[in-house]
Design a protein that fits this description.
The chain is built from seven helices and ten strands. The protein is of the alpha+beta class and about 325 residues long. The chain has a five-stranded antiparallel beta sheet, sandwiched between helices.
């Protein structure tokens, strides 16, 4: 049995469908091409601001630790203590845990000019794999390096961040002087704080950002870009859902000592994609409605009379 030929209105509708669908897809691609890069740029700029904020918070803590060591190091009582090793100074100032507790210090050490300890209090860092047997050797080597650097430059103050086998730490090395600096320094003060989980939680709470430390190999050839002096960063695209930002702090030799990591959801890009999807659905519905109305009007004005004419010619 032969199939009845399609009517003109059906042929017109079927021939217009690919054109209609292609036009909608092209409009959707144009919309995505215009909005997705802009959303990505906004999120990348926002991530750079986040990285700057956490970097400033860490640098402010280093400055606060250095100010603490200066308060204790450039002090007449400390200078006299290093000269006479008075027990009264220890009992009135150092037996109290307040200095260590207020700054969450892991080390506070008074040393003579030769680097030998006069008084020291130590707390192990909150880090996995800490070996108490190796810890004293690490501290002795740290004190030796800082003393040599300080003495070589006339007894200067040193502070910053450095790496260790137990994670990064911030430190301040201060020659002990009297308040008017009329007498030469007669000892050294070293204070240290590890950037452990408790510290990261504090910085995360202050900056309202999820913060972590990257323990990956600090490869200076990685694709990091300059952000500020002695600060580099990179952004890693984790797809349409998450964006990862890494910022590195460099020491005076431009070697990385700390890598901080922030990961957050790409809410702006997700919103743009969701908006594009709903726009596509809306365009489909609107286009379908407009096509149906146009077909109805076209059928009444043109196609029906034309079909009647064709039928009459076929009968003739």
């Amino acid at each position: 049995m032969a199939q009845a030929p399609r009517t003109i209105d059906h042929q017109l509708a079927y021939s217009m469908f690919p054109i209609w669908l292609g036009a909608i897809l092209l409009l959707l691609i144009l919309l995505a091409w215009a909005q997705i890069p802009a959303a990505s740029r906004i999120e990348e700029q926002r991530m750079k601001e986040h990285l700057l904020r956490v970097t400033k918070a860490v640098q402010a803590d280093v400055a606060a630790l250095d100010a603490f060591s200066r308060d204790w190091g450039i002090w007449d009582d400390s200078h006299r203590f290093m000269g006479n090793k008075s027990r009264a100074f220890v009992e009135s100032n150092l037996f109290n845990d307040m200095p260590m507790r207020d700054f969450s210090l892991n080390l506070m050490s008074f040393m003579d000019l030769s680097g030998y300890e006069v008084w020291t209090r130590t707390l192990l860092p909150d880090a996995p794999g800490v070996n108490p047997d190796q810890f004293p050797y690490f501290l002795d080597e740290l004190k030796k390096q800082l003393r040599e650097r300080s003495v070589a430059q006339g007894g200067i103050n040193l502070h910053g961040i450095r790496a260790s086998q137990w994670g990064p730490l911030m430190y301040s090395w201060q020659p002990i002087k009297n308040s008017d600096e009329s007498a030469p320094f007669n000892g050294f003060l070293l204070v240290v704080r590890w950037l452990d989980k408790a510290y990261l939680d504090q910085v995360s709470e202050r900056t309202m950002l999820p913060l972590a430390i990257s323990h990956a190999n600090l490869d200076v050839t990685a694709t990091f870009k300059p952000l500020k002096p002695q600060i580099t960063y990179r952004l890693i695209d984790l797809g349409f859902t998450r964006l990862r930002g890494e910022v590195r702090l460099l020491n005076s030799d431009n070697l990385p000592v700390l890598t901080l990591v922030i990961e957050e959801e790409r809410k702006i890009l997700s919103g743009v994609m969701e908006g594009a999807l709903w726009t596509f659905i809306g365009m489909l519905l609107i286009s379908f409605t407009c096509v149906m109305i146009a077909m109805y009007r076209l059928k009444g004005i043109v196609l029906t009379p034309l079909q009647q004419l064709v039928s009459a010619l076929q009968r003739f």
